[in-house]
Design a protein that fits this description.
This protein is elongated. It starts with 9 loop residues before the first strand and ends with a strand. Strand 5 and strand 6 form a beta hairpin. The chain is mainly beta.
């Protein structure tokens, strides 16, 4: 089994029709969503059996940034939070080969100011369409 360090993972979003790396990302979590199920048992069943509906969704990406309101990528995040719209985004994994492409909507932007810490922000992105794993 190959084990990868998180260092080198990149979050990208579309700015002016170009997939652009968001700067100063400290950490990221990726939850591609859940697979929808349905109960397939009947009234005589003594155990609830599940089947797959063929649908999945509801995922999120969470970013923690060293926030710089003057940085163009952070300005774009604020713009997409202030005027919500879908955006083509991707995560480039540190192996340099695979990317997870998806359409996202920025649903949360929470800046934090603490006396002894750098300005930071947490960004929440809702996954708006089925993600694609690209291998090049």
């Amino acid at each position: 089994m190959t084990v990868y360090a998180g260092k080198g993972t990149l979050f990208r979003m579309t700015i002016s029709a170009t997939l652009t790396t968001v700067t100063q990302v400290r950490s990221m979590s990726w939850n591609p969503g859940t697979v929808e199920t349905m109960e397939t048992d009947d009234l005589s069943s003594t155990y609830v059996t599940l089947g797959v509906t063929g649908r999945a969704g509801g995922g999120t990406v969470n970013l923690s940034l060293l926030y710089d309101p003057a940085t163009s990528t952070h300005q774009e995040i604020h713009k997409l939070w202030n005027t919500p719209a879908t955006n083509a985004m991707s995560i480039a994994w540190p192996d340099g080969v695979k990317t997870q492409a998806f359409t996202g909507i920025i649903t949360g932007l929470n800046a934090t100011v603490e006396r002894a810490d750098p300005l930071s922000a947490d960004v929440t992105v809702a996954v708006a369409a089925k993600p694609t794993l690209n291998e090049s």
